[in-house]
From TrEMBL:
InterPro entries: 2Fe-2S_ferredoxin-like_sf (IPR036010), 2Fe-2S_ferredoxin-type (IPR001041), 2Fe2S_fd_BS (IPR006058), Beta-grasp_dom_sf (IPR012675), DmmA-like_N (IPR054582), FAD-bd_FR_type (IPR017927), FNR_nucleotide-bd (IPR039261), MRET (IPR050415)
EC number annotated for this UniProt entry: 1.-.-.-
Molecular function as annotated in GO: 2 iron, 2 sulfur cluster binding; metal ion binding; oxidoreductase activity
UniProtKB keywords: 2Fe-2S, Flavoprotein, FMN, Iron, Iron-sulfur, Metal-binding, Oxidoreductase
Record-annotated FAD-binding FR-type domain positions: 4-106
Top-level EC class: oxidoreductase
SUPFAM superfamilies: 2Fe-2S ferredoxin-like (SSF54292), Ferredoxin reductase-like, C-terminal NADP-linked domain (SSF52343), Riboflavin synthase domain-like (SSF63380)
Highest rank taxon of the organism: Bacteria
Cofactor(s) the protein needs: FMN
Protein name, entry field: PDR/VanB family oxidoreductase
Keyword Iron-sulfur: yes
């Protein structure tokens, strides 16, 4: 992936936060302030080996001298988290993008309900600090497997908003576990829900919220790792480039991005899991088979855009705005 303009940053500090979780403090290589960011923002980080991965910023947005990211060493890693843990050291210079925000706070909300699962705490913690600074009404629930796998426990416990944060441990007593149905039982017009974490956790929260009648406009979420579902019905199909009329065949075992790359057509990608929206492409004709976790259900139903890194086609041909 080529990022249009990159920022050179130095790893000022690498620190173990919890079992299998490290934080990396990034400062401008030349010194001076970094571009401003808002709660919920992430940066694209170019890793050793040519990978690009997105990490949420988890420091206070009022800080301009550094970016802080937290990275879980994931046993199912496709190389990104391993590279960060094993190959990136203090003092190293990395190339990153300017911050982007696909997960912003709804500033018109009367109350904010923040739910974090595991490493999904990174953008949620940033939101909590921002809301605490502005005096907003919020509560935060943070679910992890165990206390020793709970990143930022000390930082949260020592903060001014500690009373608003509830910890829930999978290996703890039944009474302290998060009762999602009870928490989300009464949707109210001014209350907005934010959730980030592993897919199973997020599915449980969002499915419960929708079943309890929460309006889609009050649900905010960011998947940080996707699992693209392969299906036996993944057939070959054609994509046509609207600009040239050229037709490219997409075989059943390749993604649209891969088939286009083989044909010399590059689409900018980052996560390659339908999570980030970098590759989002307009669909002019045909019906996509959506497999992403970036578009809302309503956006998917419109069938006028799709993520070619993972989504496919329900019709024999898609005409793309390429």
């Amino acid at each position: 992936m080529s990022m249009t303009s990159t920022i050179s940053v130095r790893v000022a500090r690498k620190q173990r936060e919890a079992v299998d979780i490290c934080t990396f403090e990034l400062v401008a290589e030349e010194g001076g302030p970094l571009p401003a960011f808002s709660a919920g923002s992430h940066v694209d980080v170019q890793l050793p080996g040519g990978l690009t991965r997105q990490y949420s910023l988890c420091n206070d947005p009022t800080e301009s001298h550094r970016y802080l990211i937290g990275v879980l060493r994931d046993p199912a890693s496709r190389g990104g988290s391993r590279a960060m843990h094993d190959q990136v050291a203090e003092g190293q210079v990395l190339q990153i993008s300017a911050p982007n925000n696909h997960f912003p706070l709804a500033h018109d909300a009367q109350r904010h309900l923040l739910l974090a699962g595991g490493i999904g705490v990174t953008p949620i913690l940033c939101m909590a600090e921002r809301l605490a600074n502005t005096g907003a009404d919020f509560e935060m629930h943070y679910c992890t497997r165990s206390p020793e796998r709970t990143a930022f426990h000390q930082r949260i416990a020592g903060s001014g908003f500690a009373p608003k944060v509830h910890f829930h441990f999978d290996d703890g007593a039944a009474g302290q576990k998060l009762d999602i149905a009870a928490l989300l039982a009464a949707p109210a017009s001014g209350v907005h829900l934010y959730v980030c974490g592993p897919k199973g956790f997020m599915d449980a929260v969002l499915n419960t919220a929708r079943a309890q009648g929460w309006p889609e406009a009050q649900l905010h979420y960011e998947f940080f790792a996707g699992t693209v579902e392969k299906s036996d019905s993944d057939a070959s199909f054609e994509v046509q480039l609207a600009s040239s009329g050229r037709i490219v065949m997409v075989p059943s075992d390749k993604t649209v991005v891969q088939a286009l790359a083989d044909a010399g057509v590059d689409v900018q990608v980052s996560c390659e899991q339908g999570v980030c929206g970098t590759c989002l492409t307009r669909v002019i004709e045909g019906i996509p088979d959506h497999k992403d976790m970036y578009l809302t259900p309503e956006e998917q139903a419109a069938n006028d855009q799709f993520t070619p890194c993972c989504s496919r086609a329900k019709t024999p041909r898609l005409v793309l705005d390429l």
